[in-house]
Write a structure and sequence with these properties.
This protein is mainly beta and about 400 residues long. The protein folds into two domains: about 20-320, 7 Propeller (Methylamine Dehydrogenase, Chain H), CATH 2.130.10; about 325-405, Immunoglobulin-like (Sandwich), CATH 2.60.40.3080. It has two helices and 35 strands. The protein has helices at about 1-20, 315, and strands at about 25, 35-40, 45-50, 60, 70-75, 80-85, 90-95, 100, 110, 120-130, 130-135, 140-145, 150, 160-165, 170-175, 180-185, 195, 205-215, 215-220, 230-235, 240, 255-260, 265-270, 270-275, 285, 290-295, 300-305, 305-310, 330, 340-345, 350-360, 365-370, 375-380, 385-395, 395-405. The strands form nine sheets. The protein has a four-stranded antiparallel beta sheet. It has a four-stranded antiparallel beta sheet with strand order 2-3-4-5, with no helix packed on it.
Length: about 400
């Protein structure tokens, strides 16, 4: 009977997922390409590049979550990307005119280019606490005064900086020079940079976008020298694991931007919005192809491209609560590379205990026996990724998740 009830519950859940879908916001102007979406309180602000009939860039704002729109024609270079907010301040990176600031939700803008190159095409704009980093053709620059002044912190010889992230004081950036391209790391806010070699697991030298959520660094490869790969690092960029699932379609995929909601990570791509419930190790496609920007407001995820779509986060969060945790068994260190140690509240193991390890696809990849006080599990032979460890203690099955790096 219990198996039948479980099967029915799974079928109902599967049916609800099939019926769930992305909804297009039909009121958004037709043919307008939404480059970036941001919310300031209840005001939704979208930057666009115009449409096939009028390529004039500007912004649209909505006070009712996309039911109606008002257009704000601006002088934000050739379009604004990205838009980021810091309290009531709204910043816009532009293609050729540096950074702009608005303090009235996009009604008016002032150019903030003191210290930036005269013509500065922005490729990335990042807020870290109250500090700003901007990347583009000419390098990467840093501001501590709300974009009033900028300081060059580029890797020597940089011709272009594509993306940067501040991960608890560690800067990770992707640079081009006249002769090469690559990814670099700085622990002194850009005073010195060291290369991140491909042996670390970050095999792509061209990273379009870095992000940092839940103490994990994410990287999306892109461009002519890039791929459809994404990577995650749990140790400040020392080592990286390639994500799985972003090549689920025959078409070449392009990766654009990340966003996080609780324990879920989303990425906007050419082939759809992908989600991960295991910190970016595995992704599944939720649909909505052709988008490059993401935003979250209230209980909804918004995706922008040639139009704007939305979907309830409650639908997209399906499966998150199915992750198994345990209050009795602890694993350390986690992530681990060679050895994993099991700990019980009373710190004792008695008799002979069998340990089974399963990969993210549910396949049994290792079986080991723990005898007496031995609580060490050898994981050196496992590939990098996420695993479940199952064992029976005191006639009760215990399950815990770990990451092999």
């Amino acid at each position: 009977m219990k198996k039948q009830i479980t099967l029915i519950a799974i079928l109902l859940c599967f049916s609800s997922l099939l019926n769930a879908q992305w909804q297009k916001i039909n009121s958004f102007p037709e043919y307008a390409y939404s480059q970036s979406i941001v919310f300031i309180n209840d005001t939704m602000i979208v930057s666009h590049t115009g449409n096939v009939y009028d390529m004039t860039p500007g912004t649209y704002t909505s006070l009712n979550y996309g039911v109606t729109w008002s257009e704000k024609n601006t002088t934000l270079g050739i379009g604004a990307f990205p838009l980021i907010k810091d309290g009531s301040n709204l910043y816009a990176g532009t293609w050729g005119e540096g950074v702009y600031l608005s303090t009235d939700k996009g009604e008016s803008w002032s150019q903030q280019i003191n210290g930036l190159p005269y013509t500065f095409p922005v490729l990335d704009l990042v807020l870290s606490n109250t500090d700003l980093y901007v990347c583009g053709t000419g390098g990467v620059f840093y501001s501590t005064d709300s974009a009033k002044t900028w300081q060059d912190i580029s890797f020597p010889g940089t011709s272009q900086a594509r993306s940067i992230v501040n991960a608890n004081g560690v800067l990770i950036a992707s640079f081009n020079t006249e002769t090469t391209s690559g990814n670099y790391k700085s622990t002194d806010n850009g005073a010195n940079w060291t290369p991140i070699n491909s042996s670390s697991g970050l095999a792509d030298s061209y990273i379009r976008k870095f992000a940092f959520f839940n103490n994990i660094i994410f990287a999306a490869a892109g461009g002519m020298n890039g791929s459809e790969n994404a990577y995650v690092s749990t140790n400040g960029g020392e080592s990286w694991v390639k994500s799985v699932g972003l090549d689920d379609q025959e078409d070449y995929n392009s990766l654009y931007s990340f966003i996080s909601y609780n324990e879920i990570v989303f990425i906007a791509t050419k082939n759809g919005v992908y989600k991960s419930i295991d910190n970016g190790l595995n992704f599944t496609n939720t649909g909505c192809p052709g988008v490059s920007s993401l935003a979250i407001a209230r209980d909804t995820l918004y995706a922008g491209g040639l139009g704007i779509w939305k979907r309830a986060l409650s639908e997209l969060a399906a499966g998150v609560n199915e992750k198994v945790t345990t209050s009795n068994l602890s694993l350390y260190p986690n992530p681990a590379s060679d050895r994993l140690y099991l700990m019980l509240p009373d710190n004792t193991f008695t008799g002979c205990t069998k340990v089974n390890i399963y990969n993210a696809q549910g396949q049994l990849v290792s079986q080991q026996l723990l005898n007496g006080s031995n609580n060490e599990v050898n994981i050196s032979g496992l590939a990098k990724g996420i695993y479940l460890l199952k064992t029976s203690l005191n006639s009760k099955e215990e399950v815990s998740k770990f990451i092999k790096n």
